[in-house]
Amino acid sequence: MRKSIALATTALLGGALFQPAVAQVRTSDGAPSETMNDQQNVPEKFRAPPPSAPQAPGVNAANLPDNPEINAADIPPMVPQASANPAPADWPAYGRGDAQNRYSPLAQITPENVGKLQRVFVYHTGSKPAPGQQNKWAAETTPIKVGDSLYMCSALNDVMRIDAATGKEIWRHASGVKYQSIPYTAACKGVTYYTSSTVQEGQPCHNRIIASTLDMRLMEMDAETGKSCEAFGFGGQINLMQGMGESVPGFVSMTTPPPVINGIVVVNHEVLDGQRRWAPSGVIRGYDAETGKFVWAWDVNNPEDHHQPGPGKFYSRGTPNSWAAMTGDNELGLVYVPTGNSAGDYYSALRSDQENAVSSSVVALDVKTGSPRWVFQTVHKDVWDYDIGSQVTKFDYKAADGTVTPAMLVPTKRGQTFVLDRRTGKPLPEFPVEERAAPSPGPVQGDPRSATQPWSVAFPRLGFPPLKESDMWGMSPIDQLFCRIKYRQADYEGEFTPPRLHRPTIEYPGYNGGSDWGSMAYDPQSGIVIANWNNTPMYDQLLTREQAVKQGLMPVDAPGFNPSAGGAEGAGAMAETPFGVSVEPFWNRFTGMMCNKPPYGMIEAIDIKTKKVLWQRPLGTARANGPWGLPTGLPLNIGTPNNGGSVVTAGGLVFVAAATDNQIRAIDIKTGKDVWSDVLPGGGQANPMTYEVNGRQYVAIMAGGHHFMMTPVSDALVVYALPADSH
């Protein structure tokens, strides 16, 4: 799940680190009255269609034909790409280059002159909720920059080319995505720049933009003109719902830019959480970047079959999906896939051994075959929705003896950061991983929890110690008492407290804790990692099927689905399992304030060589936050929930928005202090980027807002630079 809790407070009370909690005694829950697959007593309108049911109208949005296959050996060698060795002035990939480290070598803007930054232009994408439409918008876009142009996508997947110095729109490619295809968020994090291996320079579609859509299409267009690349797929696009079986619009979607590795464009997708056990597959697929023809599939429960399903068949249902941005490795021929849970997030008894082996993991797939070369798992038998939302970052680690290891950073929602050898998936010796005892077997009969969980013991954890009752907080003594009562009413044994029936549990870190899709920024020159993270526990409880039915919880593909009863966030039907689930912030619902004391959002700098925290501080002020959703206007740096990441520059600055105070700020990387900020026209829930044109450095942030973060939605890309006469 990717819900972000838009909660903050008006004062920073007790920011010291918490102390460990004493484990509470666990009582035994009985199994529900119905068996795992028995839904005979469930009213028909609450049941999901069988997996073999036909796809609903609009799932194949462009009515595209089935895609033919091609052998990987027939794909021409890929020519060097702009992202392999980015020009200093450019930002040609989502995380800037193939390393995806969000580091720029530009140094014109410094802590000494950043106070002079001013808006140069604001570009409007035109994508906002229309009158009468429910606000599902959260653009989350990071533009890319190649040459003199920015390329970006709107929240509904229109693709635009913009003059990088003036903001003038050069072309727009309309995607045709309809409102009905929005899952729970209208988002497009970015697009991919690709140089063809078969089309000569100067010819149409030599340089291309690759974009994925919310309605599951993969599109290619000419970077110069924006016209469709007719030789790709069917008129410039292919249908990614082929082989997926029963679905409805919005159940499956793509929000991240697909990487191209050795000529193969690799696609993943998100599947709505909390719907049903046999949801559409989380299959990962590879396509020829030149023609769009299918190359391979990695289907978890059919690991030896890398072909597309034949007539009347489909990819295995309910398998872990991957919604985060992937990272490619051309030298090793790998794509690093961050995975989530199997469908039915809070109940694992129906998962196969293959699913349990790869969920909440990083899986390195061979880009020529689609077969895993290695798997590193961050949570065993995950029932806490600790899917990996962060893109992994590649870097070269130099050990004390001078040896260099091709490595990667793997951030997690747990706040654990794993440092792996990207050739093997094994932890670096300097960053060991221990298996530590976890609460087990758990109270749900037939669904035992893992006895141990992995801990990264050398890299500083992004988080605080376990909660205790004295950490409960409120706007008044009454509010605090309310939260203390909620704490006592719940089962809490620290991290990995198993979900249970008849009694709530506290999930801490919550599923929006630690690092999420904003990932980390890494300065390869200094070895400094910049990480922003959340401190937002959740309050969970399993529901009997009868309770779920009474609450109106049904999967999105069932007739009469009511999104106001529950959906991808909060309460979920988890149809075709014995349970539904209630998930909400651990908060005082009367004031809208979290029950744990602030800060709720943090940012810090870590030296990867010494493994020490250089500085740590709350991220986000109270200016746009307060009880009952009322902004206080106070500039107190109390730390708010945040979504989105940062960029670090050779000029000694960190640029970050992300927090719910609707500001972008520049932080001095040496001190951790703000040296500049600006109030945005909408929430800054996106990753910023920086680039240079004609000797002038620019900083850009999509201020699109976020409906779950409750920040103002806009369609504005805001771009800053120093005054023209000051550089």
Key features of this structure:
oxidoreductase; quinone binding; PQQ_rpt_dom; Quinoprotein_ADH-like_sf; 727 residues; five-stranded mixed beta sheet; disordered N terminus
Q: What's the short version?
A:
The chain has 727 residues and is mainly β. β3 (144-146) and β4 form a beta hairpin.
Structure characterization notes:
- The protein has a single domain, classed as 8 Propeller (Methanol Dehydrogenase, Chain A).
- It is built from three helices and 41 strands.
- Residues 1-38 have low confidence and may be disordered.
- By secondary structure, it is mostly beta strands.
Topology:
Blueprint (H helix, E strand, L loop, with lengths): L102 E2 L13 E7 L19 E3 L2 E5 L5 E5 L5 E5 L18 E4 L11 E6 L4 E6 L14 E3 L12 E2 L6 E2 L2 E4 L2 E2 L12 E5 L5 E5 L28 E3 L4 E5 L14 H6 L2 E6 L5 E6 L15 E6 L5 E7 L7 E4 L11 E5 L14 E5 L20 H13 L15 E3 L13 E3 L4 E7 L3 E7 H6 L28 E7 L1 E2 L4 E2 L6 E7 L4 E7 L27 E4 L3 E4 L6 E6 L5 E6 L9 E5 L2 E8 L12 E6 L6
Parallel strand pairs: 1-35
Antiparallel strand pairs: 2-41, 3-4, 4-5, 5-6, 7-8, 8-9, 9-10, 11-14, 12-13, 13-15, 15-16, 17-18, 18-19, 19-20, 21-22, 22-23, 24-25, 26-29, 27-28, 28-33, 29-30, 31-32, 33-34, 35-36, 36-37, 37-38, 39-40, 40-41
